[in-house]
Design brief:
Blueprint lengths: L6 E11 L12 E10 L2 E7 L8 E12 L1 E3 L11 H8 L9 H10 L2 H17 L2 E4 L1 E2 L6 H14 L3 E6 L10 H16 L5 E6 L6 H13 L3 E6 L7 H7 L4 E4 L5 H11 L6 E4 L1 H6 L7 H7 L3 E3 L13 H11 L4 H15 L16 E4 L6 H4 L6 E6 L2 E5 L2
Parallel strand pairs: 1-4, 5-6, 7-8, 8-9, 9-10, 10-11, 11-12, 12-13
Antiparallel strand pairs: 1-2, 2-3, 4-14, 14-15, 15-16
The structure holds N-(iminomethyl)-L-glutamic acid and fe (iii) ion.
GO molecular function: imidazolonepropionase activity; iron ion binding; zinc ion binding
Protein name: Imidazolonepropionase
Subcellular location: Cytoplasm
């Protein structure tokens, strides 16, 4: 007989965010004086502690808050090099342009697979310690067939949510032949990369890929069995959002510069069985001194909104979803409830996942215990480390309760 307890109850939870409105108050399904039972890596039961079933072992939450692990649906953590000076120059008035991506491409091509993996693992650990239990990871700093493929192989060592972003910018070798680069991305590069990835992404923006090129990339990826997602409307208005909705992408990310027709398109797309989520990356707007997206307008129109970090060395080098929640509440018009939902359940929707982002029975036991009585503290105490413990699939992966 093994001594490992089969079921564990996390007891005396002051506030449990289930993201299941049938279990508690509001869209976040908030239960006060709650408990949660974990069995075989899944949530077996969640609800008021007075009704909790017996379990083999007990963890005392001691009047603190439990939320679902953050689902960060957008990151670029496979890279080498340092762009801190570019950031400093920006803060002294230099505008952000996607041109800096090429600096990271040069450093990434020089780096060994072992160094890229070590860097990605370090950032994954960092994200996990801050409560992220699901993390999407993109390629996009290789831009040759071999370098994109090895970046994806590294990504696949740290996550199941891998995205092929060969169409990040036109590779420097193709500066005079952007069509030729799209041929490469949709031909040999896609062939080599598709087996490593679940998703295909494109940076649909002036200075990167226009509407026609973006459509070609996403269509080729879809035909090869990948699911589409889009970087759009980051640096100015453009066709990214509407293209994402037209092609049934799971998400369109950034959404900083939206026109009324974009908001309408996202609202209509939210009503589909497989919606297109508007994923906001407010850390990027913070770190590039851009205006903030109007989350209030999106939510009021009926769009589905997620929050993600976009952790990357150029436009936003944070891995903290708590920071993104705080900025979203302060500057995009979201309520704290909406922002916490967007960083958990919203991220799950953006990755078309039903097993994460909530804590109803059957969900993965991906949990965060906060050193706080409720989830409002994430925005209320910005910059303060409040993650006490993190479980993934029922296993303690960071901190201690
Ligand atoms: O999501 N927008 C394009 N790509 C990244 C930025 C990458 C970089 O500057 O290195 C983004 O913001
Ligand atoms: Fe990005």
């Amino acid at each position: 007989m093994s001594d490992v307890p089969r079921s564990i109850v996390i007891d005396d939870i002051a506030t449990l965010v289930t993201n299941d409105p049938s279990r508690g108050r509001g869209a976040v399904g908030e239960v006060r004086d709650a408990a949660l039972v974990v069995e075989d890596g899944r949530v077996a039961w969640s609800g008021p502690r007075a009704q909790a079933p017996a379990a083999d072992a007990r963890i005392d939450a001691a009047g603190r808050c439990v939320i679902p692990g953050f689902v960060d649906s957008h990151s670029h953590i496979v890279f080498a090099g340092d762009r801190s000076r570019e950031f400093a120059a920006r803060m002294s008035g230099q505008p952000y342009s996607a041109g800096g991506i090429r600096t990271t491409v040069a450093a990434t091509r020089e780096a060994s697979d072992a160094d890229l993996l070590a860097g990605a693992r370090r950032l994954l650990r960092e994200a996990r310690a801050q409560g992220t239990t699901t993390l999407e990871v993109k390629s996009g700093y290789g831009l040759t067939v071999a370098d994109e493929e090895r970046c994806l192989a590294v990504a696949a060592r740290v996550t199941d949510e891998v995205t092929f972003l060969g169409a990040h910018v036109v590779a420097p070798e193709y500066a005079d032949d952007p069509q030729g680069y799209v041929d490469l991305v949709t031909g040999p590069m896609l062939e080599a990369c598709a087996p490593h990835a679940r998703w295909i992404d494109v940076f649909c923006e002036r200075g990167a890929f226009d509407e026609d090129a973006s459509r070609r990339v996403l269509t080729a990826g879809t035909e090869r069995g990948l699911l589409p997602r889009v970087h759009g409307n980051q640096l100015g208005p453009g066709p990214g959002v509407r293209l994402a909705v037209e092609l049934g992408a799971a998400s369109v990310d950034h959404c900083t510069h939206l026109e009324p027709a974009d908001v309408d398109a996202l609202a209509q797309a939210a009503a589909r069985p497989e919606p297109t989520v508007a994923t906001l990356l407010p850390g990027v707007d913070f770190s590039t001194r851009q205006p903030y997206p109007d989350a209030r307008a999106l939510i009021d129109a009926g769009a589905l909104v997620a929050l993600a970090s976009d952790c990357n060395p150029g436009s936003c080098f944070t891995s903290s979803l708590a920071f993104c929640v705080a900025v979203a509440v302060r500057d995009t018009g979201m309520t704290p409830d909406e922002a916490v939902w967007a960083a958990t359940a919203g991220g799950a929707r953006a990755l078309r996942r039903t097993d994460v982002g909530h804590l109803a029975p059957g969900a993965r036991a991906d949990l965060v215990l906060l050193d706080a009585p409720n989830h409002l503290y994430l925005a209320y105490r910005p910059g303060v480390p409040q993650v006490a413990a993190v479980w993934k699939d029922g296993e303690l992966v960071s901190g201690r309760p």
